[in-house]
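User: My instructor asked us to take a sequence, write out its structure as tokens, and then describe one feature of it. I'm not sure where to start. Here is the sequence I was given:
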Amino acid sequence: MLDTFRPLLEAAHGLDLSNPANARAELTRRFDPSSARARELRTSLLALYEEGKIAANGALPVRWGRAAKAAPETLEQSIDVVVMNGPGPLHRHPLGEVNYCIAMEGSPRFDGQEPGWVVFPPESRHVPTVSGGTMLIVYLLPKGQIEFIK
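Assistant: Let's start with the prediction itself. The structure tokens for your sequence are:
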């Protein structure tokens, strides 16, 4: 299953997340969400979800699951997958967060942004929210670092 995520891991590897707009542009250059490769990835991810292999915990508005911990084979990024159609838990990104967002139903937006790459810089925090539909989101955390805030 790790091979499914390889294009995303490679696209995000070594990226400076301090300027989200620049990082998003570079991610799109490295792995274009409108490309044939992206369409193949979408098909694979949706199949894994339907098979219960990813985002298998919880219930909407947030289903979640960790696909891999940060390790050398994940280029030191953890891989989590969520399916959302509402708000999630408040959290902080000590080293930033890279999200690859796929529309499943409707015209979803993740924190106001369209499907594709969404980047949060180091030390940012938010209540992740999908509005306007349902979205599958792969989020990559450098060194697996995330802090949930109560």
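For the description part of your assignment, you could build on this observation: The first strand starts at residue 57 and ends at 59. Try explaining in your own words what that tells you about the chain.
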